[in-house]
Design goal:
Elements: E1 2-8, H1 12-27, E2 31-38, H2 45-52, E3 55-57, H3 62-68, E4 73-78, E5 82-83, H4 87-97, E6 103-106, H5 114-117, E7 129-132, H6 133-139, H7 146-150, E8 157-163
Parallel strand pairs: 1-2, 1-4, 2-3, 6-8
Antiparallel strand pairs: 4-7, 5-8
Length: 178
């Protein structure tokens, strides 16, 4: 079983797109719960989370969040990112056979322009991040952000691609992604 954790701040539309892409994982029994960590949103993020049956936290300690996750694996995503293709089968197979953290492969159809990719590392969660709950508990520190779990890991990539968060609204990068 898998717990999805996202952070958001006024990304209602992006959150809705991510959650709609994860429904099939819940139906198939892979996704056990979704936790949304909010950073002071003033839009409808809480309503979207409530409608989708997610836990929506406005105040939290990351250690407590990780411990409260129902799944034995955690998938950390940016609001707006959407795994595509056979993601359910690929993730289920990976967590059944592996213990190491991993990421999705970047989408070949949704890439930033060439000159915006040169000399730039993708954001820590741009391609999602999958790690075991045990690994997350061991590395969790008060005040951490989700991206901090993904930093410094050299990992294999799943064959399944992820559509990055910046594609979520109007196929253009959000200001914080440029």
């Amino acid at each position: 079983m898998l717990t999805i954790i996202l952070e958001t701040h006024d990304h209602e539309a992006e959150l809705a797109q991510t959650l709609s892409a994860l429904v099939s994982g819940a139906v198939e029994g892979l996704v056990s719960d979704v936790i949304i960590l909010d950073h002071g949103s003033r839009d409808g993020c809480s309503r979207v989370a409530d409608a989708a049956g997610c836990r929506f936290l406005v105040s939290w300690d990351i250690k407590d969040v990780v411990r409260s996750a129902r799944g034995e694996w955690l998938m950390l995503l940016e609001a707006g990112a959407r795994p595509s293709g056979r993601w359910i089968d690929d993730v289920a197979e990976y967590i059944g056979l592996n213990k190491a953290p991993t990421r999705f492969s970047p989408s070949r159809l949704h890439r930033k322009p060439f000159f915006k990719r040169i000399g730039r590392r993708p954001a820590a969660l741009e391609n999602g991040f999958l790690l075991s709950k045990r690994q997350a508990i061991a590395s969790a520190k008060t005040g951490m952000l989700l991206a901090d779990f993904a930093k410094g890991h050299s990992v294999r990539k799943l064959s399944t691609e992820i559509i990055p968060a910046w594609v979520a609204v109007g196929n253009r990068p959000r200001p914080e992604d440029i």
